[in-house]
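User: Here's a chain of 376 residues. Predict its fold as tokens.
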Amino acid sequence: MLAGDHSGVLPLTEIAVQAVVAGDFWRVQKKSLLTLPDHLGNWVLELLLEQGRLAPPQLELFRNCATTVCIASGYAHGSGGDWLAALGKFRSLQELHLHHWAKLRPDRLAPLAPLAPCLQQLHLPRCSGLTEQALDHIGRLTAVTDLDISGTGISGSSGALALLTSLTSLNLSDTRLNGSDCHWLAKLVNLRSLGVAATSIGDPSLQDLTHLALTSLDLTWTRVTQAPSMPSLQCLTMASCDLESPQPCLTRLVLTNVEVADVHWLADASRLQHLDLSGTKISDSSSECLQQLHALEWLSLSHTAVTESLRQLDLSHSHFIGSLMPAPGWSGFPQLQVLKLALELTGPRLTVQIVESLRSLTLLQFLTLQKCWLSQ
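Assistant: Prediction complete.
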């Protein structure tokens, strides 16, 4: 290595952390571990958990230095009560992630009560053993701003979550939430992001939420057909819904697999930057409308019959070749930077003429060709 050339040299902090977790140093130097800065404590804890070298008694060694803990389901034997008892002794835990703890019972959350002043992010997705009684304990963690209880047995019918007035992000997707449970959501005035995908709510349920300043809303696989009237809404996901029309203020719209063929109403959504129309029934008749979306930067038309796009274009399994070649070719895509082509085995072949035409895409940086039959 040349003098002054530090390429390939690991940072000193990374060398030190790797040395700590390489052996059992961390087990015997308990005082040093307790005084680690939080970013280093989080790092060491994460590596040890990934290696499967921690049990609840060792987890307590990080109670003073770790602020983020993520424990996979494989760690939690039985109901995981011993792990949660150890976590309840942490002094400044801010983020807790317990994913897919299927046997986690509501009463096992009780030891987390001492974390109420500091815990800000609590993710319990797919903890399917949690029922409505879990809210008695979660509702006491009043500093939480980001809560994910998707895929649990919680419905929210008790309204206990209304106590978490600091919530800015809430994911209730794939829970037992129904329309009659939405009235208490209206009390979460600081909420900005809400996920209620795969629940039984419909259009009437959203009327209780129109006064909220939501910027992101996921309604995938719900009974909603009309985009809610929320001036602040920027990101709306209604995949597999029966959408009638969106709001003009949206910047992100996901309509994957929506039963829609005519999207001329999109012309009013002048702020759209991200649009996913994959799996819809739209065709070339929508091209003129899409060209009017001057703010659009990302567009997916995968599994459709449309030929137009902008900077990023996903044309997987779409019948675009017959329309593009030999004319007008790619002349209508001067800003295209990312292009993905994936053709059906029984579809048209990728000819030399089409490959040569790609030269006109002067800004193209990434090209993906999948299942593209090349002609001789």
